[in-house]
Each structure stands twice: as structure tokens, then as C-alpha cells.
Amino acid sequence: MNKPQFTTAMLHPRYWILWFFIGCAAAITRLPYRWQISIGKYFGLLLHKIARSRRHVAEVNIRLCFPEQSPAEQAQLVRQIFIDNGIGFMETMISWFRAPDYLLPICRINGLDKLQAAHATGRGVLILGGHFSMLDLAGTLVGNHATVSITYKPQKNAVLNFIMKRGRSRTYKNQFVSKDIRGMMRALKQGDAVWYAPDQDFGPDNSVFAPFFGVPTATLTATSRIAKAGNAVVIPTSFFRLPGNTGYEINFFDPLPIPGESDEADAVVANQFLEQQIRRYPSQYLWLHKRFKSQPGEAGERGRLYKR
Q1: How far apart are CA 179 and CA 298, in angstroms?
Q2: Which of 2, 162, 230, 298 has the fewest C-beta atoms under 10 angstroms from its C-beta?
């Protein structure tokens, strides 16, 4: 389940350019850390210039979530979002192509005892996170202290999917496709810890609308169902790059009261926690995703908030 299989079909000429860039990315991870951060920054600035559709998505998200900011402040935040996600791309490459133990001295993990205490109960632990820019690197660093499985969304590109799974297989016990609810519940019932980030819009099906930065947001009910069926403790987590790129902070918190009275109540609890953490370093969140694509009462095409 954890080890990806290489096939000769991945050597097809249509993948050669991708293999070239993968080789370049792997080579860059051998450069000094400060150089890698700088490359990530300028990569993000390049995307800010040329990725117009993604820039538009980020602009809409920021206008919706930070209406108190002036247009100039919102534009500056969008620019910083691309910088931080560019750096996040380099951190992902570090986690995939290099053992990042050399970053442990500049990584502070808070609340690890909360994760360990939950695990010591014999119940499974659902680690509830969000899509922050250092997601992969955080998981790899935590892997030095705890045995964790993850969920992931498969890539359509076979080579990219292979590289992603191969890089993560060095760290995680299991990798579950995000739709493999049964696999996750089975692992939780066995007392495993599973890292889960449900903060993306998968449509109104299997979701409820709960406020997120004051905007009605399609929020998956799977968190409640998995926790209940797997008899799991839900431990929330957040992870950030510290100001000035001086290091990293990974946090584990007290268990959330999930499952609670209803799916709607659980969605509110999860979104409130995530919003609170995002507000600490707003630019490090993945605002490039159409988080508000689904809206209540839409009978036709989704995504009207992102229409130009």
C-alpha cells in the first residue's frame, strides 16, 4: 500500500520534460538551505506574474476573507501568498528527495505530548490539519517523532504520482487515497494515527455549509464519520514557517469535540479552529484553491464567486 511501483510506461517521451524538471528539483535540494528558500521565493514571484487564473482565485479568496483590508493590503497579501507557496514547493521537494533531518535543529514541535497521550489511550488518532504551504515538510519532520499514515489525492500524471508517493513512502506507514474511507477507519481501529486535511471544496455532496471567515463553505462531513466509525481521538494541528525563514513551528492541540451533536456542529468546530490558525500567518495557507466554489442554493453551475 505504501510503496509505489515504477513502470516502463513512465519512460515514454511525453514524460521526458517532466523527468528533466524533476531531476533539476532533486538537484536543487542539495544546495544550501538559504539558496533553496531564495529559489522558492523567486519561483513564487514568477508564478504571481504568469499564473493569472490562480492569482485571480487568490484575489477573490482574500477579498472574501479579509474585507477589512484595503485593496493595496489585499494585493500585497496575494503577492506574499505566491512567495510562501513557492517556498512551500521547495520544501515539498526537500521532503520528497532528501532526508530533511538537517532541519530538525530549526524546527520546534509544540504539544507532541498531546499526540502521544492520545495515542497511548489505544484509540486511533485522527490528526486534523489544513493545506498550509509546508504541509509535506511538516509531515516528514513529525515522522521523526511519531508513526503516522496520511491521506492523499492521486495525481492524474503517472510520473508525478509515482514521485509523490515514492517521496512520502520514506516517512509514512500508509498512504490512503482520500476516498478510501474504509482504509482510514480500519487503520484507526487498529490504533494508528492518520493525518487528514479535509479543507477543500469537493462539492455539496457529503458536505454541510458552515461559516469559514464568515463565508458559507462546503465542509466535508467525512471528519465526523471517520472519527465516529474509527473511535478516534481528533487532534488538530498547524504548522508554519517562522518569520524571516528562520525555522519552523509545528503544533498539536487538545482534542476537538468531534464527533459532537451533529455534522453541522462538527463542521463549525473544525472551521473555527482552522480559521484561527490561518490568521496567524495568512499568506502560508493554500488560497490558490477555489475554497468557496460551492455555495448554498446553487442549482446550476458552481463557482459563481470566481466569475470574472
Answers
A1: 24
A2: 298
Cβ atoms within 10 Å, residue 12? 11
Answer whether 218's CB lies under 8 Å from 211's CB: no
Task: Give ∠ CA 11-13-18 in degrees, rounded to 5.
Answer: 80
User: At 8, phi and psi to the nearest 5?
Assistant: -65, -20
What does the block give as the cell for 259? 464527533
Q: By the 8 A CB rule, do 269 and 257 touch?
A: yes
Q: What is the DSSP letter of 118?
A: H
Q: What SS3 string covers 22-84? A: HHHHHHHCCCCHHHHHHHHHHHHHHHHHHCHHHHHHHHHHHHHHCCCCCHHHHHHHHHHHHHH
Q: What is the pLDDT of residues 99-128, one digit of tens each?
A: 888 999 999 999 999 999 998 899 999 999
Q: Are 239 and 250 in contact (CB under 8 A)?
A: yes
Judge whether 248 and 239 are in contact, CB under 8 Å: yes
Q: What is the pLDDT of residue 205?
A: 86
**pLDDT tens-digit readout, 132-160:** 999 999 999 999 899 999 988 888 999 99
3-state secondary structure of 251: strand
The alpha-carbon radius of gyration of the chain (Å, integer) is 19
Instruction: For the chain, give percent helix, strand, coil, nearest 5.
Output: 50, 15, 35
AA letter at 196: Y
Q: What nine digits make up the cell of 28?
A: 536543487
HEC readout, 201-226:
CCCCCCEEEEEECCEEEEEECHHHHH
The answer to whether 283 and 74 have CB atoms below 8 angstroms apart is no
Q: What is the pLDDT of residue 199?
A: 93
